[in-house]
Specification:
Elements lengths: L7 H11 L20 E2 L7 E8 L6 E10 L2 E4 L9 E3 L2 E4 L9 E10 L17 E5 L9 E2 L9 E6 L19 E7 L14 E6 L14 E5 L5 E10 L11 E5 L4 H10 L2
Parallel strand pairs: 9-14
Antiparallel strand pairs: 1-11, 2-3, 2-5, 2-6, 3-4, 4-8, 6-7, 7-8, 10-11, 10-13, 11-12, 12-15, 13-14, 14-15
Length: 274
């Protein structure tokens, strides 16, 4: 998560810090606090997916993105999580586990499908059309999450999930990446709650309900959820990046690609790519 630099020399190093789980700091165990200042998962999320990646151009950088199972063999994630200029997928994903490296169901990646208008935000502005699909080699038994018909109005209670760093200190050696899935209660923000030009109908501004807390490096691609009328979780967003440039994760809003805004593309892409 958080704007990747455009130069290839910078990209390899950036991936290690942008996509959480880097070897070294990532090997440290998590704590009861996380995303940044969230908490360990309080329930099962059978649709949660962890996607291991390696930094493009430097195999020593190991990371992970999040994703959401939306069909028995399809995972929805951020486009920058499968961008070959930034990362190489390790070839498998883990579905339905509260643990990053154990449990759930492991499947091989058969194919990735990136939105044709995807553009990385580089040094200025947000990522654009930051959404992608991962097709699994065979179906899984975990229950997918339904994509909402529409996001709730600004102020609607939501929840975000991820395996990203729980400490956004500028000292990368002190970053801590949890083994256990983290959750944070959030709410939909107004367009004006994010920086000008960041939020839109396709990019959801997201505000933490907890002080100094938000998704951070390594939470990219993971879900933002809201409750439907029957109290069940439904998917409204895909973790994309910061809602304000130049601030630490915990100090600003987050930006989420709206899953409902891309529902038609998602449906057609799954049909075309089998």
């Amino acid at each position: 998560m958080f704007n990747l630099k455009s130069s290839r020399r910078t990209v390899a190093r950036t991936v290690a810090v942008v996509l959480a789980g880097a070897v070294g700091a990532a090997m440290m165990s998590g704590s009861a606090e996380a995303i940044v200042n969230g908490k360990e998962s309080t329930q099962r999320y059978p649709f949660m997916v962890s996607i291991p990646v390696t930094g493009a151009g430097d195999p020593t950088f190991k990371g992970v993105c999040g994703g959401s199972l939306i069909d028995s063999k399809w995972v929805l994630t951020a486009a920058h999580c499968v961008d070959p200029g930034l990362v190489t997928l390790d070839g498998t994903v883990r579905i339905g586990s509260e643990w990053k490296n154990s449990g759930g169901t492991v499947r091989s990646v058969a194919k990735t499908v990136v939105h044709p208008r995807y553009r990385n935000g580089e040094d200025a502005g947000p990522n654009r059309d930051d959404i992608a699909l991962v097709r699994l080699d065979r179906p899984v038994g975990e229950k997918p999450v339904r994509i909402a018909d529409r996001p709730g109005r600004p102020g609607t209670a939501t929840r975000i999930l991820g395996f990203g760093t729980i400490d956004d200190t500028p000292d990368l050696s002190k970053w801590v990446f949890p083994d256990r899935l983290q959750e944070l209660d959030t709410r939909r923000g107004a367009v004006s709650d994010c920086a000008p030009g960041y939020a839109s109908n396709a990019r959801l501004c997201t505000i933490s309900q907890v002080p100094k807390a938000m998704a951070c490096n390594g939470d990219s691609g993971g879900p933002q959820l809201q409750r439907d009328r029957r109290g069940r979780w439904e998917l409204i967003g895909v973790t994309s990046g910061p809602g304000v440039p130049g601030v630490r994760c915990s100090e600003g809003p987050g930006l989420y690609t709206s899953a409902p805004a891309y529902a038609d593309w998602i449906h057609k892409a799954m049909i075309r790519n089998g």
